[in-house]
Design goal:
heterodimer; A: mainly beta; 4-stranded antiparallel β-sheet; B: 6-stranded mixed β-sheet; 51% strand; globular
Chain lengths: 114, 116
């Protein structure tokens, strides 16, 4: 079956521009996560969606970052007025609501801000 | 304080030998889960193994086993009979509270190189 997909795979943008990153979770997975992985670092939690509940935005680094999830499926992470420090790989993961442990990750979007 | 600490930025191991990747964690929550993920150069994160805080026995999945020492708060990954395809980054992670899906912490990773 199809796994988690993300688009684009690579994005180069100029400082100050807005970008949108897309995540298509596995069908039926109600939980969706966004992480950021800077070069040589571990994963930094950004935001978590569970079903129709209000998302947990506690990991978003600034108000330039926002995310939405339409219809409990596809999610879009938006970064406004991008800065060079936003350059990273943005990973999306999904899991079943009652899955205690297994998150399925997408291939990530590599964002480069010039 | 760091929730997850991986002190080995890089490691080498000879093919067919066993290797241990270190991970220590910090939590005051009695309920937590510990995870190991593999990230090959392709970038995808691959789930390897899980250990619950109440599990009495060490988790095993094929060539992977998790050496869980609760008192020491360590959750080392042991890979037996290393293969060239095991060369990758390995991340230790913790979920605090068994049902707190959002509280997921990752370590900085260990880059494993398997030599032929």
């Amino acid at each position: 079956g199809a796994g988690v997909s993300q688009s684009p795979s690579n994005k180069v943008t100029e400082k100050g521009k807005d970008v949108e990153l897309r995540c298509d979770p596995i069908s039926g997975h109600t939980a969706l996560y966004w992480y950021r992985q800077s070069l040589g670092q571990g994963l930094e939690f950004l935001i978590y969606f569970q079903g129709n509940s209000a998302p947990d935005k506690s990991g978003l680094p600034s108000d330039r970052f926002s995310a939405e999830r339409t219809g409990g499926s596809v999610s879009t992470l938006t970064i406004q007025r991008t800065q060079q420090e936003d350059s990273a790989v943005y990973l999306c993961a999904s899991s079943l609501r009652d899955s205690l442990y297994e998150q399925y990750f997408g291939p990530g979007t590599r964002l480069t801000v010039t | 304080a760091q929730k997850i600490t991986q002190t080995q930025p890089g490691m080498f191991v000879q093919e067919k030998e066993a290797v241990t990747l270190d991970c220590t964690y910090d939590t005051s929550d009695p309920s937590y889960g510990l995870f190991w993920y593999k990230q090959p150069s392709s970038g995808e994160m691959i789930f390897l193994i899980y250990q619950g805080s109440y599990d009495q026995q060490n988790a095993t999945e094929g060539r992977y086993s998790l050496n869980f020492q609760k008192a020491r708060k360590s959750a080392n990954l042991v890979i037996s009979a290393s293969q060239l395809g095991d060369s990758a980054m390995y991340f230790c992670a913790m979920r605090e509270g068994l049902y707190n899906f959002n509280k997921f912490y990752f370590g900085s990773g260990t880059k494993l190189n398997v030599k032929p």
